[in-house]
Amino acid sequence: MSLPVPTLMGIINVTPDSFSDGGRFASRDHALAHGLRLMEEGAHVLDIGGESTRPGAAPVSENEEMDRVLPVIEALVPHLNDGVRLSIDTRKPRVAEAAIGAGAHIWNDVTALEFAPDSLKMAARLGVPVILMHARGTPETMQDDPHYDDVVSEVRDYLAARVAACEAAGIPRDRLIVDPGIGFGKTVEHNVALIRHMAAFTDLGCEVMLGASRKRFIASLDRGGDADERLGGSLAAVIAAWRQGASWFRVHDVAATRQALAVTKALETRS
C-alpha cells in the first residue's frame, strides 16, 4: 500500500461515548460530514470506529458495532479521492470482515489481533494492511495501576512477537504497522518514555504509528483541561515521534498536524 509519508489518519468515532468528541459523529450523516472535512484538511486515511476503547469503556456487541460503522463506510466510499483509504478500528474479526467487504482498506486492531482466536486467520484471509497496537488489559481495567520494569523494551518485545505471529500466519511484514499504544495501560511517565523512544520500534521492519491525539496524559503534564484543549500537546507529541522515526499519525486535528509536520520538515531540511 503506497501512502504519503508522513501518513495522517483522521479519527471518526461513531460512538456515543468517545473520550474526545462525546458522540458528536455518532450518526451516519454527521460522521460523513466529518469524514469529508478530514479529507479536505489532508487526511490520507479515515479511521472509523464503532466501539469506544477509552479507559473504563464497556464492550458492545458485534451487531451493534456493525450497525454503527457499516453505513458510514458505505457513505464515504463514493467520496474517496486522491488515494484516501478507509480503516476499520475494531477488535472483532467479523466486524473487520464486514467493513472490508463494505469498502474499508485497513484493519486497525487495538489488541494486535489477539482479541479472538481467529483474528490472525481472518487478517491473513482479508489480505489488507493491519495496525498492531500494544495494550495491557481491557478498556475496563487497563488503567488500574499499570506496571512495567522497562516500558519501552517490554512494549517493543510484545510488538516484535505479534509481528512474528502475523508472519507465521501468512501476513507479510510489509503489510503491518506497529503502534505502542499511548494511553492503553500506561501511566503518564510510560507514555512520555514511549514517545521519547519511538526509534526503538523502527527496526521491526514495519511503519510505526503514534496515536497520542488529545489524550489525558497531555493534560496531566500541563494544567489539566478538556480533550479539545490539548492540541498543543498533541502536536508536540507528533513532532517528537516524527523525529524518532514514526511515520503514521492517528489524530483528531488533521489540518493543524499537517501544518506542524510541514514546518518541522522544512526547518530540518533547509540550510
Automatic annotation (TrEMBL):
It is an enzyme of class 2 (transferase). Catalyzes the condensation of para-aminobenzoate (pABA) with 6-hydroxymethyl-7,8-dihydropterin diphosphate (DHPt-PP) to form 7,8-dihydropteroate (H2Pte), the immediate precursor of folate derivatives. This is Dihydropteroate synthase. PANTHER family: FOLATE SYNTHESIS PROTEINS, FOLIC ACID SYNTHESIS PROTEIN FOL1. It comes from the Bacteria. Residues 6-262 form the Pterin-binding domain. Its EC number is 2.5.1.15. It comes from Parvularcula marina.
